[in-house]
Specification:
203 residues, alpha+beta, two-stranded antiparallel ribbon, two-stranded antiparallel sheet, 6 strands
């Protein structure tokens, strides 16, 4: 039996056996589900080969600080996302088993079971790396419940409804503040990503 080598998933940043397009199986399912919900196209493996989307440029997440400026914005963003997860893990309160409390599932979970979850979409750069907007929470909820509708129709999905409930228990003002901050138009340049990467690496 051939043992498959593990690599870093481009989405969750954990070391897994890569399933598709640089993603582990859980993140790949989530990615395809999000494409379907947004009206995007989920290409077959054959179609992806024709489109040249079956391979991803390799990224060294440990690229030295002095070389970061030579990278493209998209690569810097991926590196920044990668280190942001470790930054949150380094600051998270843990129990004696090294688990982090998830406000969405209301369970203590191991780091391998956690995703960086964004209450307001991560495309909103003013909140993409906000510790108010981003928490470590259940990868299962972030994957599956994010595809289920919120019956109250107040939130984007069941995942977001549970996310909001967890935030409300901690600080009712956070959601109001994020609604306001989400209106700010922020554009990240290379230096912005590089400064964030340096900050997140230091922990």
């Amino acid at each position: 039996m051939i043992k498959q080598k593990k690599k870093i998933c481009i989405d969750c940043g954990d070391e897994h056996c890569i399933f598709s397009k640089g993603r582990c199986k859980v993140c790949s399912v989530r990615y395809n589900a999000s494409l379907s919900l947004s009206g995007g196209t989920v290409h077959s493996k054959g179609d992806r080969a024709k489109l040249g989307t079956t391979t991803h440029a390799r990224i060294d997440f440990n690229t030295p600080e002095e070389e970061l400026s030579s990278l493209s914005l998209s690569k810097l963003k991926r590196i920044c996302d990668f280190w942001f997860r470790f930054y949150l893990l380094s600051r998270a309160e843990k129990d004696s088993k090294g688990r982090v409390f998830c406000i969405v599932s209301e369970k203590w979970l191991y780091p391998s079971e956690l995703h960086v979850c964004h209450f307001k979409d991560r495309s909103i750069l003013s909140l993409r790396y906000s510790e108010d907007n981003c928490v470590l929470c259940s990868s299962e909820s972030n994957t599956w419940e994010a595809t289920l509708p919120d019956e109250t129709k107040e939130y984007k999905s069941l995942h977001h409804q549970k996310f909001a409930a967890g935030l409300l228990k901690k600080d009712k003002e956070k959601i109001k503040n994020m609604e306001l901050l989400a209106k700010n138009i922020v554009v990240y340049q290379k230096d912005d990503y590089i400064n964030q990467i340096i900050k997140f690496r230091k922990g």
